[in-house]
Amino acid sequence: MSSQNITIRQCLNAMVTKRAMATVAPDANLKEVVKAMVKGRRRRVVYVVDSEMKLQGCITLKNLKDIVFSHFLSKKLEDALVLSEENMELFASDKAAQVMESDVPVCHEDDKLHEVLEWMMEADLLDVAVLDKNDRLVADIDVLDLLEQWLLLGQKVF
């Protein structure tokens, strides 16, 4: 098979390391988002999806770091007990839909791998959500996945 014809689906199927995506519902609180991000193989992105796996947005590790740790740093001189209570409120009240980015980089299963790679490099993307023909989230692909494909298939993959 020519490298120009390898699809994202074929790439995903060929991966040695199968990984689950981190997903949450739009009404998930920040504690649930953090749990989804650190569960299993730690992820840099949590995807916010509806009940039909339609992508609503994403929350990146950078977003989460900025939200959580800026709160800690702004309160660092206050009493630890008060800080603890405030953080529990923060984690319980903010919802995924309130903090997610709605502009998520996506590709489709039938897209050509080399085209997605070119786009990821041009846009300096590390992660891309993968949608099926019905626009449901089915996977994500990241630069480490692409490096794995390169190790398996050599440069002909690209």
Question: How would you describe this structure in keywords?
Answer:
158 residues, alpha/beta, 3-stranded mixed sheet, 7 helices
Explain the overall architecture:
- With 158 residues, the protein is of the alpha/beta class.
- It has one domain: Roll (CBS-domain).
- Helices cover 44% and strands 17% of the residues.
- The protein is built from seven helices and six strands.
- It has helices spanning 8-14, 30-38, 61-74, 80-93, 96-99, 113-123, 143-153; strands spanning 23-24, 45-49, 55-60, 106-108, 127-131, 137-142.
- Strands 1-2-3 form a three-stranded mixed sheet.
- β2 and β3 (55-60) form a beta hairpin.
- Residues 77-83 have low confidence and may be disordered.
Number of strands: 6
What is the global morphology? globular
Strand order of the largest sheet: 1-2-3
Runs in which pLDDT lies below 50 for 5 or more consecutive residues are 77-83
Describe the oligomeric state of these chains in a short phrase. Answer: single chain
Approximately what portion of the residues adopt beta-strand conformation?
A: 15-25%
Radius of gyration, rounded? 18 Å
> Count of helices?
7
Distance between the termini: 12 Å
User: CATH topology, which one?
Assistant: CBS-domain
* Classification by helices and strands: alpha/beta
CATH superfamily: CBS-domain
**What CATH architecture do you see?**
Roll
Helix proportion: 40-55%
Give a brief description:
With about 160 residues, the protein is an alpha/beta fold. It has helices spanning about 10-15, 30-40, 60-75, 80-95, 95-100, 115-125, 145-155, and strands at about 25, 45-50, 55-60, 105-110, 125-130, 135-140.
